[in-house]
Design goal:
By secondary structure, this protein is of the alpha/beta class. The protein has one domain: Metallo-dependent phosphatases (Purple Acid Phosphatase, chain A, domain 2, 4-Layer Sandwich). Helix content is 28%, strand content 18%. The strands form two sheets. The protein has a four-stranded mixed sheet. A four-stranded mixed sheet has the order 4-5-6-7, with no helix packed on it. A hairpin with a 2-residue loop joins strand 4 and strand 5. It is elongated and about 60 Å long.
């Protein structure tokens, strides 16, 4: 199973105040994020983290990684330079799951690969403050009670969203071309 998340900001004291998180300390926040994640993610699952995983150093962050279930893939965010070689991190992840083309990036995009075919875009960075357009969605932990989203949860949410703004353009172009 696939899970998606973003913006954990481990070891980032100011994120508690900035995002109005219900934690009294970074230790409490880090522990709760680990516990909530492991309560839904199994060791055989894949987790895509769309940036801003940790504000901590490599040693502290590696200790957290050892505690997490699943196989993790990290995308580059604003605060991911202290714990990893950021040059090795991708900025965009693309995959098709159950015939749904998905683009994941730390930053929200107005258009994304295959958006004109009504593909999905999952993003972070905005901590629930930026409304999505079309088939896009903020997957940051601040938007899901500090849990990662499962693919099934995202599919249910995305299905209820309107078409991408540029989707109708392709549909109309096909009609004009007789297709």
């Amino acid at each position: 199973m696939f899970f998606f998340t973003a913006d954990w900001h481990l070891f980032h004291k100011n994120i508690i105040k900035y995002s109005n998180r219900p934690f009294s300390s970074i230790d409490e926040m880090n522990e709760e994020l680990i516990n909530r994640c492991n309560s839904v993610v199994s060791p055989s699952d894949t987790v895509i983290h769309a940036g801003d995983f940790s504000y901590g150093d490599k040693r502290k962050t590696k200790e957290i990684l050892k505690q997490l279930n699943g196989d993790w893939l990290f995308l580059l965010g604003d605060h991911d330079r202290s714990w990893t070689n950021h040059k090795s991190l991708r900025q965009i992840y693309q995959r098709t799951i159950n015939k749904n083309s998905i683009t994941v990036c730390h930053w929200c995009m107005r258009t994304w690969p295959k958006s004109h075919y009504n593909s999905w875009h999952l993003y972070g960075h905005s901590h629930g403050r930026l409304p999505s357009i079309g088939k896009s969605m903020d997957i940051g932990v601040d938007t899901n009670d500090y849990y990662p989203y499962s693919y099934d949860e995202i599919e249910t949410i995305i299905r209820s969203k309107p078409d991408n703004p540029n989707y109708r353009f392709i549909e109309n172009l096909k009609k004009l071309q007789g297709g």
